[in-house]
Amino acid sequence: MNEGAQVPKEKLIVAMTKADIVEALYDQVGFSKKEAADLVELVFDTLKTTLAHGQKIKISGFGNFVVREKHSRVGRNPQTGESIEISARRVLTFRPSQVLRAEVNSGLGTDSGDTHLDDEDSDADEHDSLEKLR
């Protein structure tokens, strides 16, 4: 895939879907749409199966998917204060790699990735962003 590929502003999407990934493979790699769709399905099926078996997934430069076992515990209903048992379950967590964190935070203008804007600056930036999209 084209590393560092930029999404043109006119193609800015709110959430990327499987169909968007298929389209990217079709456009950038040259697979047919059927081959691209089959490849995307295979990758996601493999990820789901691996996670369902409780195994960790490490993707270099992207991050780690980890399934954690949570034991049952006693909790409280915040409205009534009544004690209730919270059943044991498995939870999926994602930890981004340093590379991904740096990429996500690169447009913020800070090295630490911690950005705090006061309300006035935030409103102005939001207004500018909306104007650029029009």
Here the CATH topology of the domain at 1-53 equals HU Protein, Chain A
Total number of helical segments? 4
Oligomerization category of the chains in this entry: single chain
Under the CATH scheme, which class of the domain at 1-53? Few Secondary Structures
Please provide the ordered H/E string of secondary-structure elements: HHEEEEEHH
Class computed from helices, strands and strand pairing: alpha+beta
User: Which stretches of 5+ consecutive residues score pLDDT under 50?
Assistant: 111-134
Helix percentage = 40-55%
Q: N- to C-terminal separation?
A: 30 Å
Q: State which percent range the strand residues make up.
A: 15-25%
Q: For the largest beta sheet, what order do the strands appear in spatially?
A: 1-2-5
Task: Give average pLDDT, whole number.
Answer: 80
Inertia-based shape: elongated
Q: Which CATH architecture of the domain at 1-53?
A: Irregular
The CATH H-level homologous superfamily of the domain at 1-53: IHF-like DNA-binding proteins
Cα gyration radius (Å): 21 Å
Question: Sheet with the most strands?
Answer: 3 strands, antiparallel
Q: How many beta strands in the DSSP annotation? A: 5
